[in-house]
Specification:
By secondary structure, the protein is of the alpha/beta class. The protein has 18 helices and 21 strands. The protein has a seven-stranded mixed sheet with strand order 7-6-17-18-19-16-20. It has a five-stranded parallel sheet with strand order 11-2-1-15-21, with helices on one face. It has a three-stranded antiparallel sheet with strand order 12-13-14, with helices on one face. β8 and β9 form a beta hairpin. α5 runs antiparallel to α6 and α14 packs antiparallel against α17. The two termini are 17 Å apart. The N terminus is likely disordered.
């Protein structure tokens, strides 16, 4: 046993960043290295990053639980549900009300259901695509012809990656892209689909085409092998694979913080620089406004821009080159901003209240909102029975100028959009505007090559690790999986 891992001389590990990535990493470090001294440093006044929940008691109306970011997580891939098991809170999780499952798309100013069985860009129920009003007859015929389309979207470029837009346009035509696939994918990534990488965001679809020759043939093969049962049954079956917390997603953050321990977490503590000692000790020094501390291992779990800044602060000759390489590649990953206008409204104020969980808005509709989620349809316990919590997403990569408005202006704009689309009248009982500036990493074409460059550079830097949603997944499960993997690497756990 080495001196650094001996219980008598505990290993010191710093985690920079108190969002989900950092907290998940710290939790598993404590689990795998029970004798280590683990410190989490968060520059802001609270933990959780883009995960936060407000619980508001209103006189005369009741209690509202408002998630500022994600309001639930998927059980597949299993990293998030496994974390809940490891925390001992799986029994507290709640399943969405699947009777309201499903989503719609705005089509010529009206809300039209997404064809049942449609999964991002695959139709597991062909008849639903044939009968949907979202597509014209030529658009449907072009979609049905996908099984006969060969090759890749840009055969003359020699590139092994294409944009989502180029992929779909090539295989299924512009109408399917504009009216169906585009708004669904853009809603997930708040991205410009003309730039969004297929390999980084839709790798299973790329693999299906390579193996079977088309998505239609791949879907037929999956049907024969009984692999699309959930997708074919109903949207409700898919939502049975999601979970949330009664008191919002902050409940997960609070539980992580409690298990990690208050003594191991410091908020309002920005790190100003990193220094590496390239002698026999190979230790890292973290500089604060008020001093410095030394550690055996450091995990960068801050947002990409903050991690790039800290990597650039490292000027020790032994590691300066890989640090700069990683910083430059990390800084080249662009990010988008978004705002969520949350309106808590009486159901009686909405003339055409949809039954489904929400809807997305295609770019060609020329509206000022990206998507709408009826959060309390998923979890009715989060607001009074006579109200609905409406979360409206604004901005993203294609409409950043809208975010220059004040909170009051954004709410007023959203009211106008909802009045036209669902017949909302009057003023809401409660309103909030949540702004996430530069919080959405953009996985542009060639993203995986940038990730490989970052990971190759980081591998050359002793005892320094990077965990961020800017690399291999923006969802809750991917960042938890990355944190657990890093903790295993540091601890040597199998």
């Amino acid at each position: 046993m080495t001196e650094s891992t001996s219980p008598s001389v505990p290993q010191r590990i710093a985690v920079i960043g108190g969002g989900l990535s950092g907290l998940a990493t710290a939790f598993y470090l404590r689990r795998f290295l029970p004798h280590a001294i683990i410190k989490v440093y968060e520059s802001s006044s609270r933990l959780g990053g883009v995960i936060h929940t407000e619980r508001i008691e209103t006189p005369g109306h009741g209690r509202f639980v408002i998630d500022h970011g994600a309001d639930m997580f998927a059980t597949e891939p299993p990293a998030a549900i496994q974390l809940c098991r490891d925390l001992g809170v799986e029994d507290q999780l709640i399943v969405p009300d699947t009777s309201r499952a499903g989503a719609m798309i705005v089509h010529r100013g009206k809300l039209v259901p997404i064809p049942d069985g449609f999964v991002l860009m695959r139709a597991t129920k062909l008849w639903q695509m044939v009968t949907t009003p979202l597509l014209s007859i030529p658009g449907k015929l072009r979609f049905l012809a996908e099984r006969f389309v060969g090759g890749q979207a840009n055969p003359n470029t020699g590139a092994d990656d294409v944009s989502v837009a180029d992929f779909v346009r090539h295989r299924m035509g512009g109408e399917v892209l504009d009216r169906l696939v585009g708004p669904l994918v853009a809603g997930i990534y708040t991205a410009d689909i003309e730039k969004l990488s297929m390999n980084a965001t839709m790798a299973p679809m790329v693999a299906m085409v390579k193996k079977h020759g088309s998505l239609a043939k791949a879907t037929f093969a999956r049907r024969r092998e009984n692999q699309d049962v959930t997708e074919r049954n109903s949207a409700g079956a898919r939502y049975e694979k999601f979970r949330g917390f009664p008191n919002g997603m902050k409940q997960l953050i609070d539980t992580l913080a409690a298990v990690i321990g208050e003594e191991s977490i410091q908020t309002d503590t920005p790190i100003t620089a990193l220094h590496y000692t390239a002698d026999r000790s190979q230790r890292w020094e973290l500089s604060f406004d008020h001093g410095a501390e030394s550690f055996d291992q450091v995990v960068l779990a801050a947002p990409a821009a903050a991690s790039a800044r800290l990597l650039r602060s490292i000027d020790d000759a032994a590691v300066e080159t890989p640090c700069q390489t990683a910083a430059d590649a990390l800084a080249s990953i662009q990010s988008a901003s978004t705002a969520i206008a949350v309106l808590c409204v009486r159901k009686s104020q909405i003339a055409r209240l949809p039954h489904q969980f929400g809807f997305v808005v295609p770019k060609i509709e020329n509206r000022k909102i990206l998507a709408v989620s009826f959060a309390s349809f998923k979890y009715p316990i989060r607001c009074p029975e006579d109200h609905v919590i409406i979360r409206v997403f604004v901005g993203g990569a294609l409409q950043p100028e809208l975010l220059q408005q004040s909170d009051d202006q954004l709410v007023d704009m959203v009211r106008g959009e909802l009045a036209e689309l669902i017949g909302m009248t009057g003023r809401e009982t409660l309103a909030r505007v949540v702004r996430w500036n530069d919080a959405m990493p953009q996985y542009h074409v060639g993203h995986l090559k940038r990730v490989e460059a970052i990971e190759a550079a980081m591998a050359q830097i002793p005892h320094l690790h990077l965990v961020t949603n800017a690399l291999r997944g923006v969802g809750i499960a991917p960042v938890i999986a990355a944190g657990k993997k890093t903790a295993k690497t540091i601890s040597g756990a199998e």
